[in-house]
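Q: Fold this one first, please.
A: Sequence and structure below.
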Amino acid sequence: MTEEHLLKRITANPAIFGGKPIVRDMRIPVELVLSLLAQGVSFEEILEDYPDLEREDIQACLAYARAAIAGDRLEAVEVGQGG
């Protein structure tokens, strides 16, 4: 799966967590997934603790972090209207 396709799994909705990036409009912030990975939690453990997540969602969080650090444009991230 390309980075562009992975980034489409990341959304931002002003009505959810103040517009912070989240995974597929679920209430799972990218920041949480990255924090878990930084603590050494494995993909498998994350998927077990968050059964609605898919492996590609975790990869999407990593792709988002890479793009943000690199200063890339993030047009692929869908921004919701909120409500």
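Q: Good. Now the second chain.
A: Here it is, same layout.
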Amino acid sequence: MRDRRFWNHLGEYYDKIMAQIRDATEIQIFGPEEAKYELQKHLESEGLAEHIVSVEDAGTLTNVQIATRVRKRFPTRSQFDIF
């Protein structure tokens, strides 16, 4: 029962992410553990596999570290395109 609630909650979380990035032309995924791969699978199941430009391992990051990582991947984007 607890596992089912967890997976339902996780599915809702990924759906919220999808709502925010559905129109993205390029998607960079990074983070700790397996969550990044679960998100990748969710994106692929929604037909967005071709928009994923990278899936990278990363530990816990601050907002500044996240912004720096994104700017390295997408150097021509303005700061307003990042978040």
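Q: Anything worth noting on the second one?
A: The first strand starts at residue 27 and ends at 31.
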